[in-house]
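INTERNAL AUDIT FORM
Audit reference: QA-55
Scope: verify that the stored structure record matches its stored sequence.
Auditor: D.O.
Record contents follow.
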Amino acid sequence: MTEMAQRQELEPAVPLAALFTAFLAVCLYGVGGGGGVVWARRIAVEKHRWLTDREFADIVSLCQFMPGPNIVGIAVCVGAKMRGTVGTIAAVSGFLVIPWAIGFSVGLLFLEYAYLPVLRNILGGVAATAAGLLIATGIRLLLPPRRRPAALLFAGLAFGLIAFAKLPLLGVLFVLVPLSIAIAGIEKARAR
């Protein structure tokens, strides 16, 4: 039996409030970048000793492959490990309650004062900035495969089918992903 399993048998279950407040603290302290992961480790490994360093590293490795922000995946995994589904809900809720409350409050303010021209201009500027960032990110993602015409062809085809033909994203993905994988396999076989 591992050290952690023995410790869990001897200790009572982690209180849900402790999971909630731990990830609330991670949200408050870990602003930006990878700060959340650092604080999650400090709280889960060093402060509460819920996990060993190795267990935390395994969780972080798993979360690298999961969709979404790593820290939300860490909250899911730690909560599930400590208390199952309700632990997951407590940990994720603790992490998301402040951003949700801020976003909700700002949204209510914007709805209340949406008629003001200055607010419309601000929202227009924010929307333009977000669109510009999205376009720049798309261009950066296209730079590495520029030497691979098939990759550019599939990217352009996906864009055209979604943006201009107005086809649903999932339908386009279900058709183009298998085709692009097959073409990449053929290109790789030819290169050998």
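Auditor finding: record pair retrieved intact. Residues 113-142 form one domain.
Action required: none
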